[in-house]
Amino acid sequence: MPSSRFLRIAIVAVFALFSVLSGCEKPQPAAIIEQPIRVDVVTAVRSSKAPTTVLTGRLEAYRTAEIRARVAGIVEKRTYTEGSEVKAGALLFLIDPAPLKASLAAAEAELAQAGATADAASDVAQRSRQLRDYDSISVQQYRKDLFLEKQLRAAEQLAAAKVRSARLQLDYASVTSPITGRARRAMITEGAMVGQDEGTKLTTVEQIDPIYVNFSQPATEFLALRKATVTQEKNSEPMPVNVRLGDGSLYGTPGKLLFSDTAVDPQTDTVAMRALFSNPDHLLLPGMYVQVEFQRPEAQTAVLIPQHGLTRTRTGAFVMLEVNGHARQVAVTADTLEGKQWRVTSGLTGGERVILDGGALSDGQAVQAKSLTSNSSVAERQ
């Protein structure tokens, strides 16, 4: 029947149209799931210990004596071993004494001659005194004989002074150390002419036990440090000072803090200071640079975090914290290092989970902690 045939054609058309529409429909994309980044996390540690000041210092000998030639001559011998310990009065160099001995002999002969001449004049003056008592000599002759005696006695004293000078010059031929200390390398060799125009430097003797370390303290911190030191001195408790050597090791014996200058350098706004250290093994040498460490007098609660947990930008410092699986940026104040950890004075209260090397993360980014690392073990690896 025509109506049935038309119905079949309509149904087929509807199915064809549905197939076409189904083929043109675009597939819906699958939902993108953000994968968390695995990070190292360390717990911030609260510390109430007084902060430690670290300053650069330089070692200086306790006493230094420049050994110079005080008489002209040829150096015959060096009698010490370079770098060895010498006692006060020990012979270091010997300058040829022969010319000086000859000068001493000539001065002694001149003294003998002057003494004999003065004695003869003394006899004449004595005789004149006796004749004067009997009015057997004029006053003019008496005064002439008396003044001649005084003049020749003065010449005798001058000759005696020349003898002492010549003997002193001979003593100077034996160059000795004025202090006990370490004798450094010789500046001259045997056969050298010394002391011709000025006192030639022969060597240097340094007393290095104890030894000084010189450093500069910022003027803004000097007053508080000075007040704390005065209080400790009244309680017979000197403020300990430590030095850290160039290899990073800590010198075993603490030193005593001294105040060498009471004026502020207007160019650097610092106060020159020094500390005194015992140095029996001569491990500390003059001229060495060291790190001076001592605790500041004020006690301020702070939080310690590893160096890798802090990021600095032009606008300030911040840390990234792991909070409920996400990174959170927190601004902090951290101006000083305590060992290998930053001392944070604001922004953290302690116990926070700090992400190490979190500077590349963005605020709110999903993270997953690898493990909870202790603060001390992180500091040891840095």
Q: What Rg, in angstroms, do the CA atoms define?
A: 46 Å
Mean pLDDT: 84
Q: Helix and strand string, N-terminal first? A: HEEEEEEHHEEEEHEEEEEEEEEEEEH
Shape: elongated
Q: What's the architecture of the domain at 38-50 and 300-381 in CATH terms?
A: Beta Barrel
Highest-level CATH class of the domain at 38-50 and 300-381: Mainly Beta
For this structure, the quaternary state is single chain
Approximate helicity band: 25-40%
Q: Within the largest sheet, what's the order of strands?
A: 2-16-20-19-18-17
Q: What is the makeup of the main sheet?
A: 6 strands, antiparallel
Number of strands: 22
Q: Within the CATH hierarchy, at the fold level, what is the topology of the domain at 38-50 and 300-381?
A: conserved putative lor/sdh protein from methanococcus maripaludis s2 fold
Structural class: alpha+beta
Instruction: State the low-pLDDT regions, or none.
Output: none
Task: Please give the count of helices.
Answer: 5
- What share of residues are in beta strands? 35-45%
| Ends distance | 95 Å
Can you walk through the features of this model?
- The chain is α+β, with helices and mostly antiparallel strands.
- Among the domains are: 38-50 and 300-381, Beta Barrel (conserved putative lor/sdh protein from methanococcus maripaludis s2 fold), CATH 2.40.420; 53-61 and 210-295, Beta Barrel (Elongation Factor Tu (Ef-tu), domain 3); 97-172, Helix hairpin bin (Helix Hairpins, Orthogonal Bundle).
- The chain has helices at residues 2-24, 98-133, 139-172, 219-234, 375-381, and strands at 37-43, 45-47, 52-68, 73-78, 85-86, 91-95, 174-176, 181-183, 193-194, 201-218, 240-244, 255-258, 264-265, 270-277, 289-295, 302-306, 311-313, 316-323, 326-338, 341-346, 353-355, 367-373.
- A six-stranded antiparallel sheet has the order 2-16-20-19-18-17.
- A hairpin with a 2-residue loop joins strand 18 and strand 19 (326-338).
- The mean pLDDT is 84.
